[in-house]
Amino acid sequence: MSDAPTPVVQFGTSRFLQAHADLFLSEGDPPRRITVVQSSGDPDRARRLAAMADPAGYPVRVRGIRDGAVVDEERRVTSVTRTLSTATDWAALERVVSDEAEVILSNTGDSGFTPRPADTGTEPSQDMSYPAKLFHLLRARHAAGRPPLTVFPMELVSDNGAVLKARVLEIARQQQGDPALIAWLGACLWANSLVDRIVSEPIEPVGAVAEPYALWAIEAQPGLAAPTRHPSIEIVERLERTERLKLHILNLGHTAMVSFWHEAGGSETAIVRDVLDGEIGARLKNVMRDEVIPGFAARDMEGAARDYLATTLERFANPFLDHRLSDIAQNHAQKIDRRIGAFLTWVRDERPEFQAPVLDAILAKGSAR
């Protein structure tokens, strides 16, 4: 394990991060060194944590279709130079955040931001949520007289930077933080971002198999810069446009396919790529052409939607990804409302007379369940 300074401190060890941010920071201009932090304290992941910092790096296998061509290649991640655990290495972590960090990034899972009873403690504890642990680390950095830094949450939470900032400030006030600390926390840059890449399986002890498509979209704000330059990292004026494309093309497409599959009495073993060339795939392409793309056109996003749809259909056709419709069908009614119902509301707020008979029918069936 190297003692070289690491300007990036990452909370989370998931295979998604391995094949996403860690790879980008390894390939980027400039490459950035990372300290990876295990915040869960899970002893079963100790082997993974140790392997991540191997000087030889670890593999990411990229497999799928890009621009009509099959991709099957291996890349190597060498950005991780140190690994720590909040359960056993708090003093070292506090030093790294205070003395080395310029950027903090995280992907701590669906419940990562959820408050816990231990969050009210005045000293750091392993039982605290990620925002509470982050507060204590940032408080130590402030006490050391270090400048504010940039925080990039990657959790799948809308406005994740604003949400994390609000939670950390709430903890600071509960801790009766002094006004100078609260002002310093407010001076940190808390970035809203959206991430996307299908990471289909792990490579043991560390590494992952991922599709060619990858995105880390970061919403612009004064003074904010991406941690490195990389083709998959984009600074966008408004993150909502990117969120709409993902939610109402990629995610809506999955949900529409499941609805058509239900109607056809499809097999429990049906796979997304295999249905694209049949009746379900034809119905999907028709509803995209006749209803989804015109809906985006009503919102002045037709060009972006057509480009995103072409990429999405390539992702659906990935010959290396066994993506079962039965898996996508989990929580189907809620997905109909969020992906299709929200799309129709968004479009009709701009064009009340917008016609979408197929999507309306799916929504009506979902509401009746």
Note down, in words, how this protein is organized.
The relative contact order is 0.12. The longest helix has 25 residues, at 239-263. The chain folds into two domains: 8-237, 3-Layer(aba) Sandwich (Rossmann fold); 240-368, N-(1-d-carboxylethyl)-l-norvaline Dehydrogenase, domain 2 (Orthogonal Bundle), CATH 1.10.1040.10. The chain is α/β, with parallel strands linked by helices and 369 residues long. The model has no long low-confidence stretch (mean pLDDT 95). The protein has 14 helices and 13 strands. Helix 5 (130-143) links the parallel strand 6 and strand 7 (150-153). It is globular. The strands form three sheets. It has a six-stranded parallel beta sheet with strand order 5-2-1-6-7-8, with helices on both faces. A four-stranded mixed beta sheet has the order 4-3-11-10. It has helices spanning 15-19, 21-27, 46-52, 90-99, 130-143, 160-174, 179-187, 239-263, 272-275, 279-298, 302-316, 325-328, 332-350, 357-368; strands spanning 8-11, 34-38, 58-66, 69-77, 80-85, 103-106, 150-153, 189-190, 193-196, 199-202, 208-210, 215-219, 233-236. Residues 8-221 form the Mannitol dehydrogenase N-terminal domain. GO terms for molecular function: oxidoreductase activity. It comes from Tranquillimonas rosea. Residues 107-126 are annotated as: Disordered. This is Tagaturonate reductase.
Based on Cα principal axes, name the global outline: globular
Elements, N to C (H/E): EHHEHEEEHEHEHHEEEEEEHHHHHHH
- Can you summarize the main beta sheet? 6 strands, parallel
Percent of residues in helices comes to: 40-55%
Organism: Tranquillimonas rosea
InterPro entries: 6-PGluconate_DH-like_C_sf, 6PGD_dom2, Mannitol_DH_C, Mannitol_DH_N, NAD(P)-bd_dom_sf
Pfam family, one: Mannitol_dh
Protein name: Tagaturonate reductase
